[in-house]
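Hey, resending since the last one bounced:
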Amino acid sequence: MRGLNKVMIIGHLGRDPEMRYTPSGKAVTSFAVETRRDWTTPDGQRHEEAEWFNVVAWGSLAEICKQHLTKGQQVYIEGRLQTRRWESKEGQKHVSVEVVASEMMMLGDRRDANDSQQEIDSAAAGNGSAAAEDEFPF
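The structure tokens again:
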């Protein structure tokens, strides 16, 4: 029987992707994605929780991520979890869990949020219909 190791996240990049090459010439790009979760407790208190994921992409996907993704951009990542273990020169043991991406989809708008909001406001004002105000800007 086979197992399943699949992860899907939607979040914002915490930094620009960093690309490097292995000694054999294969591209590898890494970046961090932040996801947020909001909830309200039964007594009415609002809470927000952020979770950071280290993401690694290989090959042509690595090159695409480096070329098209920027800090703050919203992205959908699909892949698998991988745990890496290593020991430092000082003998300290380290463990890192990362998402190895197999799919990436850019979401949202790459432009500045203020520019996007001004465009949405202009379109709604020009149309004058209530339906235009309810539409999503994508």
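The beta strands are 7-13, 18-21, 27-40, 46-58, 74-87, 93-107.

Sorry for the duplicate.
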